[in-house]
Amino acid sequence: MPAAVMNAPDRLQDLRNRWDRAGKTDPFWAVLSQPDKRGNRWESDEFFETGVQEIGDVMEHVTSLGVVHGHERALDFGCGPGRLTQALARYFDAVDGVDISPTMIELARDLNKFPERCRYHQNSASDLRLFDDAIFDMVYSSITLQHVDPVYARDYIREFFRVLRPGALVIFQLPGRRTGRRSAARRYIPAPVFRLYLRVRYQDHPAATMNGMPREEVVALVDSLGAEVLDVEPNNAAGDGWESFRYSCRRAK
Fold it and tell me: First and final CA of the chain: distance in angstroms?
């Protein structure tokens, strides 16, 4: 069924099923799709070390912003096998990882080196109702929202701030607009049809589906929530053909 005619629950179920299949076949490559690592060529230690490096850079960035925050509890949204969740456990007393795929969550639990600090939750809802208000000192999400329909991405961003403690940080990556010139054929192909083509070409792999939200819309959304955008940093997390940004935001005290 083409995504354009699916209702909301069906689209989330479709996303869950696609990520679950990816988690069963080549889970590490589904998260970090480097060409030379396809076919289960990621070594576990090597894969998780990329998370240590990423979170180390993030925490240095937080320090540079001059934001004083707690270290009691953090949320990793779109945790997959726990690559970033475990890395965050070096800086927080407890970390919750959330993912739409049951298979990814099962793998994260099996590979968890910090069971006393890292907890994993499967969530197929369009919100984060499994968490109470104002319980996290930081929410982090990377290379996740880009694979989510923008309607849900907006909902999740709202939820990030709901579960965040006053004055605490949300840091998330999200593509903006496409870059470069599209082919003549691409300019005239309706978006739903082109998305279906990509799913067939890439064997329905969920990472082949990319979505963006213009930078000004993201900033306006954060502002509408009474929060503050502290920094917007360009990055290459969305790959060729997209601009991408890392947003560092603070909930109002």
Answer: 45
Tell me the C-alpha distance between 248 and 128, whole Å: 20
C-alpha radius of gyration, the chain, whole number: 18
Q: Return the CATH number at 197.
A: 3.40.50.150
Structure-token pair, residue 80? 């997959």
Q: Are 104 and 19 in contact (CB under 8 A)?
A: yes
Bridge partners (DSSP) of residue 164 are 136
Of residues 192 and 212, more confidently modeled: 212
Question: Residue 203 carries which DSSP code?
Answer: T
Give me the number of domains the chain comprises: 1
Sign of the CA dihedral with 74 first, then 160, 248, and 47 last: positive
pLDDT digits (tens, 9 = 90+) for 6-53: 455 678 888 899 999 999 999 999 999 999 999 999 999 999 999 999
Q: Is the dihedral of CA 220, 225, 231, 234 positive or negative?
A: negative
The residue segments making up the domain with residue 92 are 3-250
pLDDT of residue 4: 41
Report whether 241 contacts 180 (CB < 8 A): yes
Least confident of 25-39, 122-136, 156-170, 192-206: 192-206
Distance, in Å, from the CA atom of 160 to the CA atom of 148, rounded to the nearest integer, reads 15
Q: 120 is written with which tokens?
A: 């994993």
Short-list 166, 137, 180, 168, CA closest to 253: 166
Amino acid at 28: F
Q: Is residue 204 pLDDT above 70, yes or no?
A: no
